């Protein structure tokens, strides 16, 4: 199950600098971009959380990466 955008795990993963070990390449690339964008504009965090959650909703192949958060 994909957590709701209000779940603190999304903020934790986007604010962290820890590498996503074991994740698929597409998730790693997206996460790197989103983290860079949030670091540049912290006020955009809610939109980036929504974008990350939408990625998991759209791409079921990446669902196992949620467990890494």
Describe the protein:
The protein has 69 residues and is mainly α. It has one domain. It contains 3 helices and no strands. The longest helix has 16 residues, at 25-40. The model has no long low-confidence stretch (mean pLDDT 93).
In short:
This protein is an all-alpha fold. 55% of the residues lie in helices and 0% in strands. It has one domain (8-68).
Radius of gyration over all CA atoms, rounded: 11 Å
* Helix amount: 55-70%
- DSSP strand content: under 5%
Shape: globular
Distance between the termini: 13 Å
Sheet of most strands:
none
How are the SSEs ordered, and which strands pair?
Elements: H1 8-15, H2 25-40, H3 45-58
Keywords:
69 residues, mainly alpha, 3 helices
């Amino acid at each position: 199950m994909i957590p709701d955008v209000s779940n603190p795990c999304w903020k934790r993963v986007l604010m962290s600098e820890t590498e996503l070990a074991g994740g698929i390449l597409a998730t790693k690339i997206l996460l790197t971009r989103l983290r860079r964008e949030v670091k540049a504009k912290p006020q955009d965090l809610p939109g980036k959380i929504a974008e990350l959650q939408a990625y998991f909703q759209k791409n079921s192949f990446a669902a196992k990466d949620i467990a890494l958060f």
